[in-house]
TrEMBL record:
Assembly behavior: Homodimeric or heterodimeric through association with alpha and beta subunits, linked by one or more disulfide bonds. Inhibins are heterodimers of one alpha and one beta subunit. Activins are homo- or heterodimers of beta subunits only.
Gene Ontology CC terms: extracellular space
InterPro entries cross-referenced by the UniProt entry: Cystine-knot_cytokine (IPR029034), Inhibin_betaC (IPR001318), TGF-b_C (IPR001839), TGF-b_propeptide (IPR001111), TGF-beta-rel (IPR015615), TGFb_CS (IPR017948)
PANTHER family cross-referenced by the UniProt entry: INHIBIN BETA E CHAIN, TGF-BETA FAMILY
Protein name as catalogued: TGF-beta family profile domain-containing protein
Keyword Signal among UniProt keywords: yes
Domain spans labelled TGF-beta family profile: 241-365
Key word Transferase present: no
Compartments, record wording: Secreted
Sequence similarity: Belongs to the TGF-beta family.
Purpose: Inhibins and activins inhibit and activate, respectively, the secretion of follitropin by the pituitary gland. Inhibins/activins are involved in regulating a number of diverse functions such as hypothalamic and pituitary hormone secretion, gonadal hormone secretion, germ cell development and maturation, erythroid differentiation, insulin secretion, nerve cell survival, embryonic axial development or bone growth, depending on their subunit composition. Inhibins appear to oppose the functions of activins.
Gene Ontology molecular function: cytokine activity; growth factor activity; hormone activity
Length: 365
């Protein structure tokens, strides 16, 4: 219900913008669809911004008040690349600005890096990870790993046992999850598998995951490097989220100067130009693209063309009589995903392929 109200709010806002545009063109040809001549860049950018937020299930852009240190981000991204599954190409290419085709799927894939809030001391370290998700989403965890930088300060022949516990709230009981053995004098990054722990966590719709590391045989010597710039513990997870499937219809050509019929107009916006480069890591911009041109009766689309974000907006325009003579609109008929790497509102790094974001073809509805 909440998401429905959010969508209605977005559409009403876009109607206001497009309504203002329509009012400014009252003297023009009223027989045209609103999309036939829309080239207002402010409107297109606002549509793109609202669409990105909607697809990421965000009410507003994240407010980055405490940026993650660059060293920690670089380390985490390297580990994400190392643990990336390759079984079926689920997460696609890391070529963020590629214009290549991406296969359609009814499941949106996510790669998440979450940095821990740490309560550090010599004998144990508590780690807290914060997550936000839509309760209506069905999350399937493919992989999950905790990365911590451990250091043995012991000498001699005895090894130390590092134990990882999950803390159950609200009672505070501990459950042993995994353990690692450290040889004397050893130091480096260690991983703990958390796939099932994360799956149970999301199934129970919790928002914070609490873990604790302690050491057997360390004789009260510190076993972790004090979490700082490049040694901050983090969690890497890959998951699929069930999404509504989409279907495509016919293709159309890019716009040129020789035709005023329905076509695709290419438009690129850089995130730094709209003040979003502080929370969007990659790509550097978004190939918005939009549909424009005339839709004579003989090129109108066949019934059953898939509804889209753009189609819905223009249907609302029709319903609200912004252009009373509208009969057929030039709308997207094929779109592809946009790969994004960004900070969410909990400062987690998320990589996902947002479906149906980049317009590839247009047709008449």
């Amino acid at each position: 219900m909440t998401s429905q109200f959010q969508r209605e709010g977005i559409f009403l806002y876009l109607l206001t913008l497009l309504g203002a545009w329509a009012a400014s063109t009252q003297g023009g040809r009223r027989s045209e669809c609103p999309s036939c001549g829309v080239q207002d860049k402010d409107v297109m950018i606002e549509v793109a911004k609202q669409q990105i937020l909607q697809k990421l299930h965000l009410k507003e852009r994240p407010n980055i008040t405490h940026p993650i240190p660059r060293g920690a981000v670089v380390n985490a991204l390297r580990k994400l690349h190392l643990t990336k599954p390759r079984m079926d190409g689920l997460f696609g290419s890391s070529n963020w600005d590629s214009d290549g085709d991406t296969s359609e799927t009814d499941q949106q894939s996510y790669e998440i890096i979450s940095f821990a809030e740490t309560d550090y001391n010599k004998s144990s370290t508590k780690l807290t990870f914060q997550f936000a998700r839509d309760n209506e989403q069905n999350v399937h965890v493919l992989q999950g790993h905790l990365w911590v930088f451990l250091k043995s300060n012991m000498t001699g022949q005895d090894s130390q046992t590092i134990r990882l516990h999950m803390i159950q709230e609200p009672q505070g009981s501990r459950t042993l999850v995994s353990q690692k053995y450290l040889e004397p004098g050893w130091s480096g990054w260690q991983t703990f598998s958390l796939k099932q722990i994360l799956q149970d966590f999301f199934d129970e719709e919790n928002k914070s995951l609490k873990l604790e590391l302690d050491c057997e045989g360390c004789q009260n010597m510190p076993f972790m490097v004090n979490p700082n710039d490049s040694h901050q513990p983090f969690l890497v997870a890959q998951a699929k989220v069930k999404e509504r499937s989409h279907h495509i219809a016919k293709r159309s050509l890019k716009c040129d100067q020789n035709s005023n019929l329905c076509c695709r107009k290419d438009y690129y916006v850089e995130f730094k130009d709209i003040g979003w480069n502080d929370w969007i890591i990659k790509p550097e911009g978004y190939q918005i693209n939009y549909c424009m041109g005339l839709c004579p009766m003989h090129v109108a689309g066949a019934p059953g063309m898939a509804a889209s974000f753009h189609t819905t907006v223009f249907n609302l325009i029709k319903a609200n009589n912004i252009h009373t003579a509208v009969s057929s609109c030039c709308v997207p008929t094929k779109r592809r995903p946009l790969s994004m790497l960004y900070f969410d509102r909990n400062n987690n790094i998320v990589k996902t392929d947002i479906p149906d974001m980049i317009v590839e073809a247009c047709g008449c509805s």
